[in-house]
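Private note to self, pasted from the team thread so I don't lose it. Backbone tokens:
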């Protein structure tokens, strides 16, 4: 386990020593909590502050630099109610970090997940992205992501990588529940605020141009452009306001990875296919009977090149015909197009003639694992290429009408129509892969004693892996995923200022949300892993060798003796076209059906979910004296009623095929079955906040609330879906449950804050969450659709009787092809003879028959368990200004504890519940702001966390990153700046039950940028 170590502390020291070139976010806390009585957006009605004075906090961006922003954050935190933190823009068009998620991680209790070197998802107080609700100006936002591209998308997690930071005024994190805040986030509600033209009258704006240099780039020009601008003006005596903003960002980078795939975990006493053979003498320190261990199934090196293009834009029109009435119309657009090209070399294990050494239990991990092969087995080393090219587009059109009525009443009507859509950008699909192989491997080994899994491969004499003429085309897969989320929402909210001696104000409102989701998926695949044709079918000059060790600089073990040193680059599109022209890979695949003239698979799974939620709320705000000291209570309740309609078109299997020695496939016909399920639930969500100032400049707070998080879309799906490629002994599938009710949490928060200077404070907070209705998965072994297993039955038994019990699967298949031709579909040469794969066995399909045994499928189905979990923790923060020197610091540390943790010592048959993302986190910030020069440094650290797996866990190891920037306003309004991300090039790594069970190891590289900004 890697923790907050001496190495981490050394990076803090390094951050201090490099202050002149460093960067950190300008952390600011959110608006006065009294201004959040309605939705936390700019269209919100406002109430008096906690001091009983009219609320003066608006959505204006801060225009006077770091120190003024921090001073305002102290005032907001001090005067606010509950626990609300935020990051604010320092100037119009100038956000502290290049990515919203990167900025959010500076907040106490917030940590992020990165993808391709950029922040993507947010975890708050140990609750991962699916437990946090994201709104835009107080409106619930749709989200679309295709996930791994290998199944129908299902996530509610908001992808912050879609949004550029330049058009954002602030991002607010509501950690405690409020009756006036939309439901859906147990971890938090995160509100993204965009600027409004009438927030600050007059004409203003900015434009920035910069170049980005990414040192991770494997090849090609690593410098890419970014341009952003915002313009805001008011007209007709500030009765009309117009704001437009836009950003264009291009990034080219690489994210190389060494990975290991594991099969199921086993007990040392088990003896099944895939376990360590009980009688083998070639196992050192064999796992004991009750030890849990896992055997590697595959290992690979991937050189991954990324091309990302992000475009954002917003237009806002405001009209204020009279002082008491404001109308706003706004449109927000974002697109994020990502193309990922992956060149890979890898090995697969067959669990036959093996040698290995293991650590001590109770979690025995491999030190090395070797497998040997006979020459006639013709074992292969794979060389594959993959293309993932998708685009996500978000659109939101909204309107707001706010009326300050007589008698202290304010009424706001707000509505929006928003969509998010993700789909592929090419004619091959969302996630595609094509394979090659060189046959003749004598042995293969993975060494697990380093941070980097060392893959070694030995070939039989006469086999040279550097000879491109030996590269043989094998299998391929073209996956096509689609996701669309549409939200229509209307909100009516009111506010009454009473300003009495006890009753200060009342807020009330009503919200209607219609959320419509479509998730679709299909694939075509050729399971010809033994070879689809001869090596001569693909020209040698399409392949270009690329070295591996130098692409993993700084990773322990990457330069080890014996590491396989190279792979082959090739153009995916050209190669896929060759497969189509030579072998009809797309027009006549073994599995699936493509759209005419493309490799885009028809959708075989098409799921639709509609949620309709009505939510009235009321909230009362009070002020009073407690023992002569000012105190406040905000109390309210929100009622949520949700109806769920889940429909699905799922493919109906028609049979199964045995397509190669270890490969099986399910046949899906053109028939689909339509299923529809319904569900409903309701929740009463109370919330109360209290604060008192017992002595001058010290504030104590307490909050209690109920919050919910809804199930992911995959869990709510209708219909039974089977995975298309079952194993020889078992297939898998899943079935949703629209009757699931949300997770529900009962929350307690306490905090103490001491404000000892205009820009300085110390705070300590404690939180406790009791969560119920956790969604668990039950597994049921059953048959499905009367599917039969072709590797059973009379044909298989006759082959074993004729060939002997030790016969290999390839020989058994040949026997069935020869003796039972009526139930086989062999591939034939032009002369009518059998086609044979690279191992010399007959190529083709063996079809299932009614005499074969029923195929067993392990079906996953979610349910609300009676399991409860307690998550609790501490948040420590200090913000300190070093008098008039211009220097200052922000330090925070979050401790998260809980009983929802995975027990690594339990066997794989035990279904466990654990909360993803649970980890400690810390931030250290140094800044300088004086005489037009700003310099910032931010070091962010996150502890190791559980990343998923109900039966076999995965973990992402502790990670720390130092970011840096500096700017100089050398003439009024004109600033030059430089930035650095991951300045020390920190690497990332993940594992299973112990460190030796490495699942990925990725090098880290710095990213630099520089440019100029003009503000007016």
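Design output:
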């Amino acid at each position: 386990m890697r923790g907050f170590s001496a190495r981490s502390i050394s990076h803090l020291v390094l951050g201090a020593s490099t202050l002149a070139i460093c960067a950190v976010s300008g952390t600011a806390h959110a608006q006065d909590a009294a201004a959040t009585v309605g939705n936390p957006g700019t269209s919100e009605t406002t109430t008096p502050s906690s001091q009983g004075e009219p609320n003066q906090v608006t959505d204006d961006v801060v225009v006077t630099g770091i120190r003024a922003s921090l001073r305002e954050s102290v005032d907001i935190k001090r005067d606010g109610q509950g626990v609300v933190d935020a990051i604010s823009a320092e100037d119009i068009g100038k956000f502290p970090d290049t990515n919203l998620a990167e900025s959010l991680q500076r907040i106490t209790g917030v940590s992020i997940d990165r993808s391709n070197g950029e922040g993507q998802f947010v975890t708050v107080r140990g609750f991962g992205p699916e437990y946090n609700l994201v709104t835009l100006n107080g409106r619930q936002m749709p989200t679309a992501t295709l996930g791994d591209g290998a199944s129908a998308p299902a996530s509610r997690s908001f992808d912050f990588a879609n949004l550029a930071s330049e058009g954002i005024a602030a991002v607010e994190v509501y950690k405690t529940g409020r009756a006036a805040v939309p439901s859906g986030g147990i971890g938090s509600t995160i509100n993204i605020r965009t600027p409004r033209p009438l927030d600050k009258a007059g004409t203003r704006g900015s434009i920035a141009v910069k170049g980005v240099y990414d040192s991770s780039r494997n090849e090609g020009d690593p410098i890419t452009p970014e341009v952003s601008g915002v313009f805001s003006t008011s007209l007709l005596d500030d009765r009309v306001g117009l704001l437009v903003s836009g950003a264009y960002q291009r990034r080219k980078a690489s994210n190389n990875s060494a990975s290991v795939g594991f099969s199921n975990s086993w007990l040392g006493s088990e003896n099944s296919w895939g376990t360590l053979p009980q009688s083998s003498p070639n196992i050192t320190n064999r796992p004991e009977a009750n030890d849990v261990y896992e055997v590697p199934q595959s290992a690979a090196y991937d050189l991954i090149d990324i091309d990302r293009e992000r475009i954002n834009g917003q237009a806002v029109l405001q009209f204020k015909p009279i002082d008491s009435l404001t109308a706003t119309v706004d449109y927000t657009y974002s697109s994020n197009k990502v193309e990922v090209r992956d060149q890979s070399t890898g090995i697969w294990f067959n669990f036959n003639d093996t040698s290995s050494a293991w650590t001590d239990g109770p979690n025995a991990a491999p030190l090395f694992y070797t497998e040997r092969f006979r020459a006639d087995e013709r074992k292969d080393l794979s060389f594959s290429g993959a293309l993932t090219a998708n685009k996500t587009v978000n659109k939101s059109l909204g309107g707001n009408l706010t009326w300050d009525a007589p008698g202290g009443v304010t009424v706001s009507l707000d509505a929006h129509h928003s969509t998010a859509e993700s789909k592929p950008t090419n004619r091959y699909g969302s996630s595609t892969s094509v394979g090659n192989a060189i046959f003749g491997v004598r042995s293969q080994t993975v060494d697990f004693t380093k941070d980097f899994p060392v893959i070694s491969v030995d070939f039989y004499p006469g086999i040279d892996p550097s000879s491109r003429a030996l590269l043989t085309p094998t299998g391929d897969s073209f996956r096509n995923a689609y996701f669309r989320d549409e939200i229509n929402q209307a909100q009516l909210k009111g506010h009454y200022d009473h300003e009495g001696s006890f009753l200060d104000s009342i807020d009330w409102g009503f919200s209607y949300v219609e959320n419509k989701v479509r998730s679709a998926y299909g694939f075509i695949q050729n399971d010809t892993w033994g070879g689809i044709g001869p090596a001569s079918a693909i020209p040698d000059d399409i392949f270009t060798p690329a070295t591996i060790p130098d692409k993993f600089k700084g990773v322990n073990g990457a330069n080890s003796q014996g590491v396989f040193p190279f792979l082959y680059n090739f153009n995916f599109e050209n190669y896929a076209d060759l497969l189509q022209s030579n072998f009809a890979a797309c027009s006549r695949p073994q599995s699936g059906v493509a759209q005419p003239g493309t490799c885009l698979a028809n959708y075989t799974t098409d799921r639709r979910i509609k949620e309709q939620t009505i939510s009235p709320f009321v909230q009362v705000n009070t002020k009073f004296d407690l023992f002569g000291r000012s105190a406040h209570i905000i109390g309210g309740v929100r009622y949520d009623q949700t109806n769920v309609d889940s429909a699905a078109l799922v493919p109906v299997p028609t049979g199964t095929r045995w397509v190669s020695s270890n490969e099986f496939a399910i046949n899906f016909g053109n028939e689909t079955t339509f299923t529809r399920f319904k569900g409903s639930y309701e929740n009463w969500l109370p919330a109360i906040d209290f604060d008192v100032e017992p002595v001058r400049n010290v504030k104590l707070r307490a909050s209690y609330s109920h919050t919910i998080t809804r199930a992911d879309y995959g869990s709510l799906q209708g219909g039974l879906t089977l995975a298309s490629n079952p194993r020889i002994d078992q297939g898998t599938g899943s079935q949703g449950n629209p009757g699931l009710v949300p997770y529900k949490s009962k929350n307690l928060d306490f905090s103490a804050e001491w404000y000892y200077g205009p820009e300085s404070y110390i705070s300590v907070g404690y939180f406790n969450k009791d969560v119920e209705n956790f969604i668990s998965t039950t597994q049921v072994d059953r048959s499905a659709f009367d599917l039969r297993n072709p590797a059973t039955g009379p044909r298989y038994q006759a082959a074993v009787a004729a060939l002997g019990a030790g016969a290999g699967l390839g020989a058994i298949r040949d026997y069935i092809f020869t003796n039972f031709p009526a139930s086989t579909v062999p591939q034939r040469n032009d002369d009518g003879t059998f086609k044979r794969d690279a191992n010399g066995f007959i190529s083709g399909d063996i079809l299932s028959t009614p005499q074969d045994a029923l195929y067993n499928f392990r079906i996953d189905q979610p349910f609300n368990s009676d399991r409860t979990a307690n998550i609790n923790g501490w948040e420590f923060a200090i913000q300190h200004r070093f008098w008039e020197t211009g220097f200052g610091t922000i330090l925070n540390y979050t401790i998260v504890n809980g009983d929802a943790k995975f027990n690594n010592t339990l066997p794989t048959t035990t279904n466990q519940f654990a909360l993803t993302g649970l980890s400690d986190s810390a931030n250290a910030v140094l800044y300088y702001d004086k005489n037009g020069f700003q310099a910032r440094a931010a070091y962010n650290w996150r502890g190791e966390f559980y990343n998923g797996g109900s039966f076999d866990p995965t973990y992402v190891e502790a990670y720390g990153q130092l970011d840096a920037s500096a700017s100089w306003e050398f003439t009024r309004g004109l600033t030059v700046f430089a930035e650095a991300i991951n300045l020390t090039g920190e690497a990332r790594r993940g594992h299973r039950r112990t460190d030796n069970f490495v699942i990925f190891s990725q090098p880290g590289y710095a990213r630099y940028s520089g440019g100029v900004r003009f503000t007016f």
